[in-house]
Write a structure and sequence with these properties.
Blueprint lengths: L1 H66 L4 E7 L9 H17 L4 E5 L5 E4 L2 E4 L2 H5 L9 E11 L10 E5 L6 H7 L14 E4 L11 H25 L6
Parallel strand pairs: 1-2, 1-6, 5-6, 5-7
Antiparallel strand pairs: 3-4
Family: Belongs to the class IV-like SAM-binding methyltransferase superfamily.
GO molecular function: miRNA binding
Organism: Takifugu bimaculatus
């Protein structure tokens, strides 16, 4: 009899202990479930925030794309750059190289002038010599910043490009920009640098005696790109250098 009572008591104690263990386990499971729910809710909120930020960025980018640039960049090259090409196919290829370089650097206008001062035809009209590039601009107000490129120019690394509305970069032919200016009978100047706001050597300490025009475009626009970006960055932030 006493054995049965003791066994029953032991069974009750064991059952209560198991219930306590089950409750602790259940409580831990509930706590873990709540934690997972909170984490899932937080992740959902973060994902929603990320989508909203991405959508806002896309709207801003689209607005900027639709607005377009307020400034333009024009490049002028002499027709003689094709003289070294020995066949129509090579001339076509060379012209394509120049066009491709201008596209890469977001050039808005390409002007081809005749170094001999003869008629030049392009979508902008007819010009005679390099001087007409300045005087017969398609822009009503003309080019407010002009850059000439020459190995006799100032070091590009030390130059600063001011903010502009219409920028013109002029390249010379096989004999350089000086020869293009000398050949224009309408220009009465002995120093080509006086025609430009900036007269720059875009490849100082060059390793070759001459640089082809198609090479000069790539080198020059690569060097000018950060200068152009800095010009508008300084203007927007009100830097003293931009005043």
């Amino acid at each position: 009899m006493s054995v049965d009572i003791a066994a029953k008591k032991q069974k009750i104690v064991t059952s209560q202990a198991e219930e306590r263990i089950d409750w602790k386990k259940r409580k831990a499971e509930l706590k873990e479930t709540q934690k997972q729910r909170k984490e899932a809710k937080l992740l959902k909120q973060l994902e929603k925030q990320r989508r909203e930020e991405a959508a806002e960025k896309e709207r801003l980018d689209q607005r900027q794309t639709n607005k377009g640039r307020a400034s333009t960049v024009s490049v002028a090259v002499p027709g003689s750059v094709l003289d070294n090409a020995q066949s129509p196919e090579l001339r076509t290829y060379l012209a394509g190289q120049i066009a491709r370089a201008c596209v890469v650097f977001c050039v808005d206008e390409i002007i081809v002038f005749d170094e001999d001062g003869e008629d030049l035809k392009s979508v902008e009209g007819e010009f005679k010599g390099v001087g007409a590039v300045f005087t017969e601009s398609q822009f009503k107000e003309g080019y407010d910043v002009t850059i000439g490129t020459s190995e006799r120019g100032n070091n590009l690394d030390k130059a600063t490009v001011p903010p502009f509305k219409h920028l013109l970069v002029v390249f010379g032919g096989l004999q350089g920009l000086e020869a293009s200016v000398d050949a224009d009978q309408n220009l009465d100047v002995t120093d080509p640098s006086v025609l430009f706001d900036l007269y720059l050597n875009t490849c100082p300490s060059q390793g070759s005696r001459t640089i082809r025009t198609e090479e000069a475009i790539l080198v020059s626009m690569s060097g000018l790109r950060p200068k152009i970006e800095a010009a508008f960055s300084d203007a927007s932030t009100g830097s003293p250098d931009s005043q």
